[in-house]
Amino acid sequence: MTLNLKLNGQTHQVEAEPGTPLLWVIRDELKLTGTKFGCGVASCGACTVHLDGEPVRSCQTYIEDVEDAEITTIEIVDQNPVGAAVQEAWAELDVVQCGYCQSGQIMSAIGLLSENSKPTLEEIDDYMNGNACRCATYQRIRAAIVLASEKLEA
Description:
It is a single chain. This protein is α+β, with helices and mostly antiparallel strands. The protein has two domains: 2-75, Beta-grasp domain (Ubiquitin-like (UB roll)); 77-153, DNA polymerase, domain 1. Helix content is 38%, strand content 15%. Strands 2-1-5-3-4 form a five-stranded mixed β-sheet, with helices on both faces. A hairpin with a 2-residue loop joins strand 3 and strand 4 (54-57). Helix 2 (81-92) crosses helix 5. The chain is globular. Its EC number is 1.3.99.16. It is an enzyme of class 1 (oxidoreductase). This is Isoquinoline 1-oxidoreductase subunit alpha. Residues 1-77 form the 2Fe-2S ferredoxin-type domain.
């Protein structure tokens, strides 16, 4: 089936079978590799993208369900103030260790701060709960979200 996808502010015409995960279209068809494959069952968060501004797991979001939605990937998040603040905080606190999960972590953090610009530590932990980091940089991730919140407030 042929679909028109609005991805990162541009419309792309793609060919995909019904039931194809959005993740594979983003990575294989559109060659945007910032969004990672982690588990394939929406448990780790590595594949997180924004669908109409809301974080979703692209490994379990099917292509036929997103034709009329605005999809945003890690490649352009620095173009909005929340995304820029999150990426700046991530770099400032040297959050990344191996880096594999970080695009999903960042996309979820942007989702959190877009909904709640001043989250408590408990709210951060609750919101980020579905994002796994094998390197266990959770304390730095939390600190970066707090720092990004402060940057947005300034």
